[in-house]
Amino acid sequence: MTEKESEYTNVSIPNSLAEKIKKRMEGTDFNSISEYVTYILRKIIYQIEAEEKEKEAFSKEEEEKVKERLRNLGYID
């Protein structure tokens, strides 16, 4: 764990949500709501970042190279 990862902040959630989280934690190795929520948030952030990366399949430079090749082949003006 890096120094940055060992720094924490507090986040408030509704009690009703905390109760749902406690139920979801049953039978897992998570020791606290914070541990479980951190795990879930990391997964969600990772998925979002992966989707964003996928959308940006080409950098602007790569896109321009492809367009130039298509122009040279006469496919686009």
Secondary structure tally: strands: 0
Structural class: mainly alpha
The count of domains is 1
Poorly predicted tracts of residues: none
Tell me the overall shape: elongated
Largest sheet: none
Question: Keywords for this structure?
Answer:
77 residues; 0% strand; 3 helices
Give a structural overview.
This protein has about 80 residues and is mainly alpha-helical. It has one domain. It has 3 helices and no strands. The longest helix has 23 residues. The radius of gyration is 22 Å and the shape is elongated. The termini are far apart. The model has no long low-confidence stretch (mean pLDDT about 90).
Care to give the gist of this entry?
The protein has 77 residues and is mainly alpha-helical. It is built from three helices and no strands.
Write the layout of secondary structure elements.
Blueprint: H1 15-25, H2 33-55, H3 60-72
